């Protein structure tokens, strides 16, 4: 079942096949909308005029944009929609790795977000996930497990990259498990 | 609002810092906020995060084993963005943020964001960057650290938002 990848880290062949492969493409369920922009700004009392004043937005960004930190908002699924069979999990690759390595617990240890072209009202955001790496088994104070790095790439309807997230996760089994 | 007053207000709002205001070691003005259950729930809903540990006290305490519902990571990103752009003004354009979570932020916590400019650099495209270290504490304990790379106008005529394609390199830092 095990295979060796180029860096001599051993793991199942199907995990080796996942590395570098775009998976789980998701198209946002609704176009980017200003109502959500204002709700997000209100949640942290962000008075940046770029998001509240159309003249400032016209001057600086050629029209309204969404706060860059809202990147992940635009592809999160509705809590329910007609015909829904099961709830989609964000960052599915993370859960796939937990399952394939039989690691019941996991934490995210680091999250980097890189912001590209501005996101604008009316944009439809498309994402996919790419497994970048998986470590050899490591022991930490949480237990024995593996670290993995997953990138999430965000594109708009013109295929322009509006952002990229990189998650470092640690899947593990507690010593008593 | 009259057009003259509107224009004055518009000019004031669009003003912010420039590269001339930057130096290494510069302290960013702190932001203080008392977190309530509403802060946490509003933040979760604003980020479309329906997971119960961010709105359901019984789930958070009995299933997750935490002391209360807690602020989710995407909403913390909103707080960091607000903290940075309160300082830069609207021309400040975020390039990159890296978070490290240390402990959760709960209702009843006093949240304080502080930050320092660690480095100022000019990239190959002529864009000025401030590399900042930001710390979010809850009741004095470090909850989240965030490394932020934000583009700052070189002068009052410059606008980082006008950059696109090859002229926007948000992750060039080593």
Summarize the structure.
The complex is a heterodimer of chains A (about 180) and B (about 170). With about 180 residues, chain A is α+β, with helices and mostly antiparallel strands. Chain A is about 20% helix and about 35% strand.
Could you characterize the architecture of this molecule?
The complex is a heterodimer of chains A (177) and B (174). Helix content of chain A is 21%, strand content 34%. Chain A has 177 residues and is of the alpha+beta class. Chain A has one domain (2-173): Roll (Thiol Ester Dehydrase, Chain A), CATH 3.10.129. In chain A, strands 3, 4, 5, 6, 7 and 8 form a 6-stranded antiparallel β-sheet that branches. Chain A has a two-stranded antiparallel ribbon with strand order 1-2. In chain A, a hairpin with a 5-residue loop joins strand 7 (143-155) and strand 8. Chain B has a single domain (18-167), classed as Thiol Ester Dehydrase, Chain A. The N and C termini of chain B lie far apart (48 Å). Chain B has helices at residues 3-14, 37-46, 57-63, 73-88; strands at residues 27-34, 93-101, 110-122, 128-138, 141-152. Helices cover 26% and strands 30% of the residues of chain B. Classes of the chains: A alpha+beta (177), B alpha+beta (174). Chains A and B meet through helix 2, helix 4 and strand 4 of A and helix 1, helix 2, helix 4 and strand 2 of B.
């Amino acid at each position: 079942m095990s295979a060796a990848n180029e860096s001599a880290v051993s793991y199942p062949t199907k995990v080796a096949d996942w590395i570098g492969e775009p998976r789980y493409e998701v198209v946002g369920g609704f176009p980017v909308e200003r109502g959500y922009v204002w709700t997000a700004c209100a949640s942290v009392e962000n008075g940046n005029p770029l998001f509240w004043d159309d003249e400032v937005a016209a001057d600086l960004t050629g029209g309204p944009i969404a706060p860059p930190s809202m990147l992940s908002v635009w592809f999160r699924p509705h809590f329910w929609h007609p015909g829904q069979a099961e709830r989609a999990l964000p960052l599915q690759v993370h859960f796939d790795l937990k399952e394939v390595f039989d690691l019941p617990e996991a934490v995210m240890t680091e999250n980097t977000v890189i912001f590209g072209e501005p996101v604008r009202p009316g944009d439809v955001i498309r994402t996919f996930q790419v497994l970048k790496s998986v470590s050899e088994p490591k022991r930490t104070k949480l237990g024995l497990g593996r670290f993995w790095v997953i990138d999430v790439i965000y594109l708009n309807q013109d295929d322009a990259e509006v952002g990229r997230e990189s998650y470092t996760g640690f899947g593990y089994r507690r010593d008593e498990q | 609002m009259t057009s003259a007053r509107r224009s004055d207000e518009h000019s004031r709002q669009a003003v912010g810092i420039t590269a001339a205001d930057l130096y290494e070691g510069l302290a960013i003005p702190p932001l203080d906020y008392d977190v309530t259950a509403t802060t946490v729930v509003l933040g979760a809903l604003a980020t479309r995060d329906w997971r119960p540990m961010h709105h359901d006290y019984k789930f958070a305490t009995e299933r997750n084993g935490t002391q209360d519902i807690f602020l989710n990571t995407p909403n913390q990103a909103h707080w960091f963005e607000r903290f940075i752009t309160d300082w830069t003004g609207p021309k400040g354009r975020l390039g990159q943020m890296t978070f490290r979570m240390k402990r959760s932020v709960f209702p009843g916590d006093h949240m304080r964001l502080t930050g320092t400019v660690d480095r100022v650099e000019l990239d190959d495209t002529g864009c000025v960057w401030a590399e900042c270290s930001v710390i979010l504490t809850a009741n004095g304990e470090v909850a989240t650290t965030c490394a932020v790379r934000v583009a700052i106008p070189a002068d009052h005529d410059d606008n980082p938002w006008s950059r696109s394609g090859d002229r926007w390199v948000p992750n060039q830092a080593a």
